[in-house]
């Protein structure tokens, strides 16, 4: 059940996060990352990138967290998420997520809410975008 | 595209499918400590991920695996598919591999202290051009099943390979 008032066009409160180098290093260890794109500066320099790339898996982590926090922790409502990575994110980049409700439908006895979102580096280019589908019981 | 790269793409496709077949259903049991650490790293303090009593109060059997953890959960399998049989793929075929997107369906909340399985299906490679040259796109469809073979989540893990 959704307790807050929602309507088409409504913006999701933005969420800002910094890709702290130390935190990301700990994540790589936790995820047992082996891809040199996320580990070796030498390797990524050869491919034309400025620094190691923050893994998509880590970047993805913040989308459900942001959305679930917005809907007051109701994880049952989370139905699907799409994510498309558009530009590299590097350690110490700060990114901000913005999104809005684009459609609300009644399906059987559920309220289905479709959202779009994007994330960009502060004062810089967009790094990812996607959609979120939420499904609330009435 | 040169014939050499087409044959490399075919070889990549053949090798990945062989690895998927050999691995079969990938079984795992989520690690409680790892998930607590993960929540700490992303700053998620939702108690249903961290405390059994809070999870029970919210109607779950036990601590819930955060949806945020989904692609981290499937990543070890992706890595295993890429590296099974030694470093052959990376030393001879693949110059770079990158996760470019995902489409994830959450069908049933997953709780701790249970065994899960992941079933993998691979798409055929599709040639694409981008800012960094020509890549081959393969989608890893990773379906997470519970002990009763009910699908809890599906991650369509979209990857680019530079050959």
Summarize the structure.
The complex is a heterodimer of chains A (138) and B (163). With 138 residues, chain A is α+β, with helices and mostly antiparallel strands.
Overall description:
- The complex is a heterodimer of chains A (138) and B (163).
- With 138 residues, chain A is of the alpha+beta class.
- Chain A has helices spanning 21-30, 41-46, 56-70; strands at 11-18, 78-85, 94-107, 110-121, 126-137.
- The N and C termini of chain A lie close together (5 Å).
- Chain B has 163 residues and is an alpha+beta fold.
- Chain B has five helices and six strands; from the N terminus they run H-E-H-H-H-H-E-E-E-E-E.
- In chain B, strands 1, 2, 3, 4, 5 and 6 form a six-stranded antiparallel β-sheet that branches.
- The longest helix of chain B is centred in the first third of the chain and has 21 residues, at 3-23.
- Chain B is elongated, with a radius of gyration of 18 Å.
- The chains are: A alpha+beta (138), B alpha+beta (163).
- The A-B interface holds A 17, 23, 26-27, 30-35, 37, 47-48, 53, 55-58, 60-65, 68-69, 73, 75-76, 78-85, 130 and B 34, 37-38, 41-44, 46, 48, 58, 64, 66-72, 75-76, 79, 83, 95-106, 109, 132, 162.
